[in-house]
Design goal:
The chain contains 13 helices and no strands. It is mostly helical and 240 residues long. It is globular, with a radius of gyration of 19 Å.
Amino acid sequence: MTSIADIWVYLSASPLLHLALTLVAYQAGYAVYRWRKFNPIFNPVLIAIIILVTILLVTHTSYQTYFQGAQFVHFLLGPATVALAIPLYRQVARVRKSALAVTVSLIVGSITAAASAVFITWVLGGTRDSFVSMAPKSVTTPVAMGITEQIGGLPTLTAMFVILTGITGAMLGAPLLNALGIRDWAARGLAMGTASHGIGTARALQVNEIAGAFAGLAMGLNALASALLIPAAWHLIFGR
């Protein structure tokens, strides 16, 4: 009789196993999220990560082996990001009307996100590598890792900070904005997209279409602004 261990060895040789595990973990996370009436504390991405990390640790599976299957989901991030242009197109008139406010908000938000990350890391006694890797934490992952490479940081550490920032923003962004009395959907979307990139944008889209459109705009433009400002500021201050 074939043992469970033999079945696992057979399945683990296929990249489709880890693709299936990723999809099932997210569906489980989303089921909990829906069961809790879309309470942001029960973020489906966080739940999926906890499930997957537990499985990988228990089965002694390396990240490289897991990613052979999960890369198909990673590939879909590109089309999903492009799809954010649809809600933005529907709000293009409002974006044009608010162009100046959007531009100023994005520049201030981009600088604040990077500077506060470096300052907090310095206060907590972080090393140079952690300063550099933390600076682009509010930028979408591929761009953030590219920025870190340019200024001599650790891209894998940056990826971890980016995911943590996105999950934290999606969980706590709405309650914080409510507490601050910010009711305008465009302003809320800009804040979510600038501070917590794609994960925050996904949360904003679930709540309101206008917030989702402005969050998608903020995510894209924050990536552009950060890619220009962070390396320039780093080389200006540290001369490297």
